[in-house]
Amino acid sequence: MRRISLMAGAAWLAGGSCMLRAQDATLPAVQVNASRLGVPPLDVPAALSVVKVAPEDVGNPGVNLSETLVGVPGILARDRQNYAQDEQISIRGFGSRSTFGVRGIRLYMDGIPATLPDGQGQVSHFDLDAADRVEVLRGPFSVLYGNAAGGVVQLWSAPGTATPQTTLGVYGGSNDSFRYLADTRGMVGAMDYNVAASQFLSGGYRQHSRVNRQTAHARLGFDLGQGQSLTLVLNHLDQPVAQDPMGLTRAQLQADPQQASPAALQFDTRKSTRQDQLGLVYERPSGDDGQWRAMVYYGQRDITQYQSIPVATQANPLQPGGVVQPDTHYGGTDVRWTHHGQLLDGDYEVVAGVGGDYQRQHRLGYENFAGGNLGVTGALRRDEDDNVNSVDAYAQWYWHFAPSWALMLGARHDDVRFSAHDYYITPSNPDDSGNVNYAATTPVLALQFRPGEDLRVYASYGERFETPSYNELGYRSDGLPGLAFNLRPARSREYELGAKWQATRALAFDAAWFRADTRDELAIDTSVNGRTTYRNVPDARRQGIELSMNGEITPSWQLSVAYTHLQAQFRSSFLTCVGTPCAAPTVPVSGGSRMPGVPEDYGSLLLRHGGVEGWSQGLTITGAGATTANDIGTARAAGYVVADLDATYAMSWAAHVGLQLSARVDNVANHRYVGSVIVNDGNGRYYEPSPGRTWMLGARLTFK
Which DSSP state fits 72? Predict the structure, then answer.
């Protein structure tokens, strides 16, 4: 897998990203989707990593986004080995509180939001077979994406190829894991296409962790002439079964890390998911010096999840049951205008846009028992509509005002309204309807100095805004009925100092120091039997450094290495719950305590040798320091370093058929470690163990 890490991203705006022109004449060019700011990557003051996606090159099956992120600093993507809860992704500590799905960072696929308007996202429908690259934006300029933008992750599909090609692949390996894939791409007249479909089956490393995931993705591009284009993006996810083994206590982890929690077996905890999404992007010129871009999308996501809420707990008439069934319809639009010109002999570019998104969720809740059976759908306990409407406006101005200086200014305003309509009203369960409105204007600015042709130094500042998601509003921590509309949005002030050095035309170094001070930090209050409540902590701080080096050492050797040091702390004291039941928080947490779920040090390395044809080999090393699992720091997972090895052999017959064979061994030393933690679990089930030594064999056949 070839990677180029490029610090850019100040040119990113909602729904788009900066045009980066490859500076490397040796490595293949990496195209990054345009916001029509023609600024070379060295000249844009922000932190962005661009990763070419080619999981087949290292023998990866292409199931998890974490496979692609080796060598990217700042981001921590943890494969939980639990497909009922999705991957755990955080950027500079934002998002680490999430017990399932992705929160605190924004997700996009081909410029189409994969994060709902309330801030809840998922990457389960990200299709790596059709992908061209992943872009990871960190730091202050993420705020230009609005609500919950502690960082931004975008996956971009490859356009159709001039020569049509079709790839068929199969992978098989440990834990009865199999993946089948097909991808076809090409051009027909003025249309280019890229269509992929796959199925992933696994018995799971742990007991009760079986999964069946089916995905399909299509990107169709139409050249309409006179500089106009239309891109159609469709994707489909059907995950009919994903068993949930849940977390383990320390004693259970030491006894057998492959076991499932007894509660998971008792209630047959599991989740089924189906999602379909459609997006359209239209672009056209605006005179000789500008461009219009319009995006519209619509999607539907249905979930049925069986949790391990005890029967005795559900005797409380205010409890909404142990089966969760949200049916979500969502969509939105974004329109922006780009213009460039000159001011006082300096080039400038300006971008302005408006957008709006909506979310209509009908949420049902049922008892998870009936007729003496557990883990089945019982009586109705919840029936409500949870709706979100958001509108936003943004603008950004870049000005190269002197030969060695450039200035970037931007601002965004968001208005997000939550409303709940309760239809399950009984004498013992009152009407819980209500609404709340969150609004914020978030500025951003940066200044860059160019001391040399290949060296850039910059400073940037931005303010961030994050509302609670509906999953965080769902239950009040004080035990009272209704949604937790008493939660306040988190607001952050972010600072970054960075340097970028293009050491050679094939090798780049990036470094950044960052700090984010957050008021009303959204943190986990209690997490018991699959149900989580949240609180606001007055003050928190995340600060640290990022270092990375990416490129070619020699024409046959590639290296990607990244290191992050992160200090994430609560700056104010508060009370928390320990154990269950917990009527009210009584245990003090002192200011200066570490935030749970965030290691102080983490990093990754990828070293590859070989070319396109014949043999190639690779070594991957990933590691993270110790991670606390609760606010008071009494539970923690030890740090780890894990090494993986892979080998591939590629051959072709004439110019029409290619065969690639691969073999991969993960966790070569069979190290026993905890890959992720469940923060503040009231039952002490904090730990999600990762697999020992596993293997995967693959074969891909390509017809041109």
Answer: -
Using CA of residue 294, residue 119, residue 81, residue 84, what is the dihedral sign?
Answer: negative
Tokens of 529: 């039997």
Residues 6+ positions from 316 with CB-CB distance below 8 Å: none
Tell me the three-class secondary structure of 296-314, residue by residue. Answer: EEEEEEEEEEECCCCCCHH
Dihedral of the CA atoms 472, 478, 481, 482 (nearest 10)?
Answer: -30
Burial class of 631 by CB neighbour count within 10 A (0 to 12, 13 to 18, 19+): buried
DSSP letters for 334-385: EEEEEEEEEETTEEEEEEEEEEEEEEEEEEEEE-SEETTEESS--SEEEEEE
User: How far apart are the C-alpha atoms of 662 and 608, rounded to whole Å?
Assistant: 14
What 3-state class would DSSP assign to 466?
A: strand
Cα–Cα distance measured from residue 601 to residue 625, given in angstroms and rounded to the nearest whole number = 5
Asked if residues 18 and 11 have their Cβ atoms less than 8 Å apart, the reply is yes
Contact 495, 464 (CB under 8 A): no
Please give the Cα distance from 145 to 123 (Å, whole number): 17
Which of 541, 552, 542 has the alpha carbon at shortest distance from 606?
552
Q: Residue 508's closest CA among 49, 111, 139? A: 49
pLDDT in tens, 560-588: 999 999 999 999 988 887 766 666 677 88
CA–CA gap between residue 61 and residue 562 (Å, rounded): 23
Is residue 466 exposed (0-12), middle (13-18) or buried (19+ Cβ within 10 Å)? buried
User: CB-based burial of residue 315 (10 Å sphere; 0-12 exposed, 13-18 middle, 19+ buried)?
Assistant: exposed
* Separation of alpha carbons 111 and 154, rounded Å: 7
* C-alpha atoms less than 13 angstroms from C-alpha of 465 in its C-beta half-sphere: 19
Q: Are 171 and 125 in contact (CB under 8 A)?
A: no
Question: What is the C-alpha separation between 342 and 313, in angstroms, rounded?
Answer: 67
- Rounded CA separation 412/638 (Å): 41
β-strands 346-366, 369-370 pairing: unpaired
Do residues 588 and 603 make contact, with C-beta atoms less than 8 angstroms apart? Answer: no
Q: Which residues make beta-bridge pairs with 510?
A: 500, 548
Phi and psi at residue 528, to the nearest 5°? -130, 125
Query: Picking from 16-20, 451-455, 535-539, which range would have the lowest pLDDT averaged per residue?
Result: 16-20
pLDDT digits (tens, 9 = 90+) for 322-373: 999 999 999 999 999 999 999 998 999 999 999 999 999 999 999 999 988 9
Nearest CA to 390 out of 277, 506, 302, 469 is that of 469
Amino acid at 447: L
| 137 vs 154: CA distance, rounded Å | 9
Taking CA atoms, 605 is separated from 88, 150, 152, 612, in Å, by 20, 24, 22, 21
Of 133, 19, 4, which is closest to residue 398 (Cα–Cα)? 19
Token digits of residue 511: 């470094």
Residue 33, classified by CB atoms within 10 Å of its CB into exposed (0-12), middle (13-18) or buried (19+), is: buried
SS3 470: helix
Predicted structure pTM score:
0.91
For the chain, the C-alpha Rg in angstroms (whole number) is: 24
Query: Contact 340/347 with Cβ under 8 angstroms?
Result: yes
Give every CB contact of residue 52 below 8 A, 6+ residues apart in sequence: 1, 2, 3, 4, 28, 30, 132, 133
Find residue 383's DSSP bridge partners.
364
